């Protein structure tokens, strides 16, 4: 079963992409995002997609234009993440058969994203909204809307956010930073998976 945890590898280098992805997948995190403002991000995406598309979902983050949507699709990405809610980006992403995770913060942005066909909502920046804000959004959004807080989230925060209605999480600096060793990435990934499993019943 794929866990609803997305590893955000901002700053990863193409030459380390395969090894890092292998470590994450081995720990149980099988959704991996490479932000486009990473060095040669498309090559990293392509490398990981070719190696692991049968067992993992490889996506692109910080996708801001229609041309970028096409480029990441061509590189083998299976989902697109943006920091903002742009209906044209969502619609083009879905037309290409990719998952769409637009960044939202307000109720208006959430509803706009869902109307445009978003697969799930990236709540960003989550450390500003806090769980109380997510709980308020949950009260008005469709029950089936998937919501992924991103920004300042770590394993210690999972239970509180899940009580507020989080579906999953995007994990950045708590999981990966340039310079982290493979052992450290493996340890952080294992900690995140264990925290997710232990918060399965947040009531």
UniProtKB/TrEMBL annotation:
Say which enzyme class the record assigns. Answer: lyase
Read off the InterPro entries from this record.
Aldlse_KDPG_KHG (IPR000887), Aldolase_TIM (IPR013785)
Q: Write the record's keywords in alphabetical order, separated by commas.
A: Carbohydrate metabolism, Lyase
Report the EC code(s) recorded for this entry: 4.1.2.21
Molecular function in Gene Ontology: 2-dehydro-3-deoxy-6-phosphogalactonate aldolase activity
Q: Which Pfam families does this entry report, sorted A to Z?
A: Aldolase
The pathway that the record names for this protein is:
Carbohydrate acid metabolism
Instruction: Give the UniProt family note.
Output: Belongs to the KHG/KDPG aldolase family.
Oligomeric state and interaction partners are given as: Homotrimer.
By what name is this protein known?
Answer: 2-dehydro-3-deoxy-6-phosphogalactonate aldolase
- Source organism (scientific name): Neoaquamicrobium sediminum
């Amino acid at each position: 079963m794929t866990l609803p945890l997305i590893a955000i590898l901002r700053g990863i280098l193409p030459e380390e992409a395969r090894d890092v992805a292998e470590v994450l997948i081995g720990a149980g995190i099988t959704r991996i995002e490479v932000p486009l403002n990473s060095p040669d991000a498309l090559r990293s995406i392509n490398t990981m997609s070719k190696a692991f598309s049968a067992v993992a979902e490889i996506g692109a983050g910080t996708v801001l234009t229609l041309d970028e949507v096409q480029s990441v699709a061509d590189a083998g990405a299976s989902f697109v993440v943006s920091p903002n809610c742009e209906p044209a980006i969502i619609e083009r992403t879905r037309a290409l058969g990719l998952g769409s995770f637009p960044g939202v913060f307000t109720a208006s942005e959430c509803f706009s994203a869902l109307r445009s066909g978003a697969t799930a909502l990236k709540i960003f920046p989550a450390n500003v909204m806090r769980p109380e804000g997510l709980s308020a959004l949950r009260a008005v959004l469709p029950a089936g809307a998937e919501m992924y807080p991103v920004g300042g989230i770590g394993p210690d925060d999972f239970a509180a956010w899940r009580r507020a209605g989080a579906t999953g999480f995007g994990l950045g600096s708590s999981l990966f930073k340039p310079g982290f060793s493979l052992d450290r990435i493996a340890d952080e990934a294992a900690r995140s998976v264990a925290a997710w499993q232990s918060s399965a019943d947040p009531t």
